[in-house]
Amino acid sequence: MDVTFKKKKEVLEGEVALKSRDLEDSHEGFKGEIEDCTFEDKFITISPECVRCNLCVEECPVNAINDSTSSRSAKILDNCVKCEICAQTCPVKCIHVIESTSNVQDDVTFHLKDVKVPHRKLRMESVKVNPENCDSCSTCVKFCPTGAITVPEGEIAQIDTDACVGCGACANVCPQGSIDLVRELGPVIKTKELLVDQDTCVQCQVCEENCPVDAIKLDGDRVVLDQEKCILCEVCSTKCPVGALKLEMV
To answer: How far apart are CA 149 and CA 173, in angstroms?
Structure first.
């Protein structure tokens, strides 16, 4: 996806003015005035094609994804740190990393770009249906992304192991818990590198205080990064007040 759309600046200013009426200290006749600027951001979203496997939920290092059920898809929560591990993990590529740019001049221009994210290895090692629990409801059939499951009339679910990719959607949505799956999930692929400028660092400890996985520490006058713990999110690099931390693509 690579989309650009525009709206008139005065329309946006009008929207700001309308929203300001909800503020306790707003005044009648307030007019929103927006200066020329450019704003860049990134967000992660899950499309309706979610197969309910919950792999993203299991792999999220900061518990920022609401789990899925047969009646609702998974959902990215506000505490997402944009590490992109969920996007690398999704077996059907329904988790999208979107870069957005908003440019305000005479018009307001919005540009959205879908970032290409590599995918981790996922392989089914074994899968089986417990005949004593399966009640032939066919819920698993509905969510299998490869059509590997069939439920012949009057029989239990049948799984084509050659077509199964090991996503685990069937095991997650089965109301009877009758599907046992063993799968192999490969390591997270490193697409970024966190660079630390020790000379610029002012030892303020903001990075240490805000790291969601305790991967960065201040040892004396040096920043020490635990490469094994670091999930290459955007927290420390965006919060560093002097730009001593920089996240770069590799």
So the answer is: 13
CA distance 43 to 76: 10
* DSSP letter, residue 76: E
- The pair of structure tokens assigned to 213 is 């996985």
| Contact between residue 237 and residue 247 where contact means Cβ atoms under 8 Å apart | yes
At position 176, the amino acid (one-letter code) is Q
Amino acid at 172: N
Angle at 123 between CA 133 and CA 227, to 5 degrees: 120
Query: In this predicted model, what pLDDT tens digit does every residue of 194-232 receive, in sequence order?
Result: 999 999 999 999 999 999 999 999 999 999 999 999 999
Tell me the domains of the chain and their CATH numbers: 2-115 (3.30.70.20), 122-185 (3.30.70.20), 192-249 (3.30.70.20)
Q: In the predicted model, is pLDDT for residue 173 greater than 80? A: yes
Whole-angstrom Cα Rg for the chain: 23
| Residue whose entry in the numeric block shows the structure tokens 């009646």 | 71
Least confident of 29-43, 73-87, 194-208: 29-43
Q: What is the pLDDT of residue 134?
A: 96
Residue 31 CA, chain-centre distance (Å), reads: 36
Helix ranges restricted to H, the chain: 9-20, 55-59, 85-89, 139-143, 169-173, 206-210, 235-239
* Alpha-helix runs per DSSP H in 52-121: 55-59, 85-89
Residue 233 has pLDDT above 90, yes or no: yes
Average of per-residue pLDDT across 30-51: 85
Q: Which residues does 150 contact at the CB level (< 8 Å), separation at least 6?
A: 141, 157, 158, 160
